[in-house]
Amino acid sequence: MNPYAKLTFSLSLVLGTAITISSNHWVAAWTGLEINTLAIIPLISKSHHPRAIEAAIKYFLVQAAASTLLLFSSMINAWHTGQWDITQLSHPTSSLLLTAAIAMKLGLVPFHFWFPEVLQGSPLITALLLSTVMKFPPITILFLTSHSLNPTLLATMAIASAALGGWMGLNQTQIRKVLAFSSISHLGWMSIVLIYNPKLTLATFYIYCTMTGAIFLTLNITKSFKLSTMMTSWTKTPVLNTTLMMTLLSLAGLPPLTGFLPKWLIIQELSKQEMAVPATIIAILSLLSLFFYLRLAYYSTITLPPNPTNLMKQWHANKPASTLIATLSSMSTLLLPLSPMILALI
Fold first, then answer.
1. In which region does residue 149 sit, left (phi positive, over 0), alpha (psi from -120 to 50) or beta (all else)?
2. Residues 6 or more apart whose Cβ sits within 8 Å of residue 121
3. Torsion 328-38-5-9 (CA) sign
4. Distance between CA atoms of 51 and 126, rounded to whole angstroms?
5. Which of 102, 170, 202, 216, CA to CA, is 20 to 30 A from 135?
6. What are residue 25's phi and psi, to 5 degrees?
7. Phi, psi (5° rounding) for residue 292?
């Protein structure tokens, strides 16, 4: 791709995100979301592979439908209340339509079908953007309207997302699809606590972005796209694969790693709100996700390939040192001792 075109699309992503997260008017927020959608589509389809083109078309259709629903929701609210302010969402029909639109944009169950397919057809760096940056504006809109949303509907969608994300990830061999279902599962955790503690949802999202960023950037260096190539990547970068294993275990939510913190705080918040049953259900469902994270960690460092491969010769392959991966991996595994400071910010 032309560097100038790539720069234009990257700046458009930043601009669209900034417009959405800083706006109070529905039309301005919708404009930012549309800029984001139009900027990411060329990045998805830049390889010109049929799978990438298919992913770009699927992404465009879903996002266009979600944006239409969002605009329709804001128009109904403005018709009944005379308010175009995002925080003044008070009409129940508008609230339901908005929940459906944002769930479609994020890939929450039952609007999740597009997300694994689009991620599988995208390059790893674009898949990272789809899993993190592109979810920030919709989550911000949910944050601003959290007081108006239906708690029962959100809790139901959250538990369904945690269940389906864990269940569907079990039989995947493509790493991008595994990470897509992992994203759906984590979105369930964020959604269930959104109404009761929106700041905790944002903190969970930031920690999730850190861990996912470390994993995608590591996979991009080792060129691991499926489990079979992951088994041989340790011969190329043994140290990097060790940090990848730690980050995967952190994403699974195992103590004493960083990923345990958001799950701990969410279960604590749900218990305070007398939601012990949903908290128990979502905690048990996270065991499904834990299984495929452990399998990925097992393949990345412990399992040896069944036959000698040419990759065995690459013990001393020169790989560029990445400060960003080192920083993200450290944050993904070592932030739990700083939990008092994070709690103070929340």
1. beta
2. 44, 49, 51, 52, 54, 55, 56
3. negative
4. 14
5. 170
6. -100, 140
7. -80, -25
Q: What pTM was estimated for this model as a whole?
A: 0.91
At 264-312, the pLDDT tens digits run 999 999 999 999 999 999 999 999 999 989 988 888 777 665 555 555 4
The mean pLDDT values, 10 residues at a time, for the chain of 346 residues are 88 94 93 94 90 94 95 93 88 93 93 93 94 94 92 94 92 91 95 93 94 93 84 78 90 90 94 93 92 86 61 53 84 85 76
Q: Residue 299 in 3-state DSSP?
A: helix
Token pair 């990470």 is found at 179
DSSP, res 64 = H
CB atoms within 10 A of CB 61: 11
Distances (CA, A) of 116 to 44, 119, 167, 204, 259: 13, 5, 13, 21, 22
Q: What is the DSSP string of 66-105?
A: HHHHHHHHHHHHHHHH---BGGG---HHHHHHHHHHHHHH
> d(Cα 122, Cα 176) in Å, to the nearest integer?
9
Between CA 57 and CA 256 the distance in angstroms is 42
Q: How far is CA 78 from CA 91, 126, 137, 332, in A?
A: 9, 36, 21, 42
CA distance 103 to 69: 11
- Using CA atoms, how far apart are residues 184 and 163, in angstroms rounded to an integer? 9
